[in-house]
Amino acid sequence: MPLIRPFGLPEFWIIVMAAKWTVALSAIAFAGGGLGGLLIALGRVSDSKWLRGLATGFIRLFQGTPLLMQLFLVFFGMNILGLAINPWIAAAVALTLHASAFLGEIWRGCIEAVPSGQREAATALGLRYVNRMRYVVLPQASRIAVAPTVGFLVQLIKGTSLAAIIGFTELTRQGQIINNATFSPFMVFGTVAAVYFVLCWPLSVLARRMEFRFSRATER
Amino acid sequence: MYTVNFAPVFAGFDQLLLGAWLTIQLSVAAMIVGLIVSILCAAGKTSGIAPLRWVIDAYIEIIRNTPFLVQIFFIFFGLPSLSIRLTPNSAALVALVVNFGAYGTEIIRAGIESIQKGQLEAGTALGLSKLQIFRYIIMKPALRTVYPALTSQFIYLMLTSSVVSAISADDLAAAGNNLQSQTFASFEVYIVITLMYLVMSTGFSAIFAIIEKAAFKYPLSR
């Protein structure tokens, strides 16, 4: 077998199939980040000064530092805590924290966009915090939130590519591996980019369309 | 058991400071060139020449829907196939410019479109000269509209630039990688570097906020 093999259909399919790990990692980070983001957003708009400060600090920290460093810190931090270094878990944890901060900030804006009269009316009707949030504020905020959330999902999918640097074999890392075997970087990274484009572009279009429809529905 | 020890990190702190300076230089250079690209593309997009608009739209969509890491791999490893060979540092700059340009174009275009024709006409009616109209009626409001988006895009660019260490271009993250491989104090090195990025991004946003207050302090409407 020659040392360098050509870039053919099998190599193409190996790269395309690696997209499933990108999708899986994005899904985990999005689900975890959704939960974390909700907590952060609620903390950001809470009446407690401490909770607000904590949530604000969390958002500042994750929005003010590179995602790559966040990945490195979780990756090497696991070692300090005495855990075995595992790129899968490190990437999932780091991306979940990252997504929590960004979704928290996006959703805070959406919650604050709900007119305060709604909250006051709910309080006047005798609804306590949980029911007020659950039945009055969050349903209205979630309508505003859909478009920017889908927009962030695109950013998150692109962000998963950095997991390749800590050695998690997703789409980009698989591209690097195939490139080492075939040495046709133009084809390999062109294919990798095309697969990301196929994943992200429909979401970008969807987000834009929803934003447009929403802005038309709410103008007047 | 791992013992946390910051001593080797501070012994090599001058390397990190140099890295931070390189990151700032790289980001500022990419921002300046990227802005020129953005202005040209925004002008092209609003020019009304359809094929030009399609090309620019394709550029924007491709860049915005693929990861920066793949873009830089493509530029650094892929372009030599077309006999375009770049050093890691110039590939890093090119990749950051190309990336920033796609986002900047949309920001600049929004700024151009934010100026209503009626404002220009009002300026003429008030007897302002062409230069005054350009300066006070076009440039100032347009800059004010795009300023917040542009500055946060710059900070995003600076944070993204850490990825250039993946092709071993010189920057703060690369300085960290080097120090880490000399000292094996991985966690300590990266926590210090992360804090340095945090200081840079909050520092820049504070400077940008001061500039905004000084330059654009006049009533918005009514």
Can you offer a commentary on this structure?
The complex is a heterodimer of chains A (220) and B (222). Chain A has 220 residues and is an all-alpha fold. Chain A has helices at 9-44, 49-63, 67-80, 87-113, 116-124, 129-159, 171-182, 185-218. The N and C termini of chain A lie far apart (69 Å). In chain B, helix 3 (50-64) crosses helix 5 and helix 7 packs antiparallel against helix 9. Chain B is flat. At the A-B interface, helix 3, helix 6, helix 7 and helix 8 of A face helix 3, helix 4, helix 7 and helix 9 of B. Chain A: The chain crosses the membrane at residues 12-40, 61-82, 144-166, 186-207. Chain A: Pfam families: BPD_transp_1.
Please summarize what this structure is.
Chain A: One of its GO terms (molecular function) is transmembrane transporter activity. Chain A contains eight helices and no strands.
Low-confidence stretches of chain A: none
Cα-to-Cα separation, first versus last residue of chain A:
69 Å
Shape of chain A: elongated
Q: Per CATH, what is the topology of chain B? A: MetI-like fold
Compute the CA-based radius of gyration of chain A. Answer: 21 Å
Secondary structure elements and pairings:
The complex is a heterodimer of chains A (220) and B (222).
Chain A: H1 9-44, H2 49-63, H3 67-80, H4 87-113, H5 116-124, H6 129-159, H7 171-182, H8 185-218
Helix pairs in contact in A: 1-2, 1-4, 1-7, 1-8, 2-4, 3-4, 4-6, 5-6, 6-8, 7-8
Chain B: H1 7-11, H2 13-45, H3 50-64, H4 68-78, H5 88-113, H6 117-125, H7 130-160, H8 172-183, H9 186-215
Helix pairs in contact in B: 2-5, 2-8, 3-5, 4-5, 5-7, 6-7, 7-9, 8-9
Protein name (chain A): Amino acid ABC transporter permease
GO biological process, one term (chain A): amino acid transport
Keywords (chain A): Cell membrane, Membrane, Transmembrane, Transmembrane helix, Transport
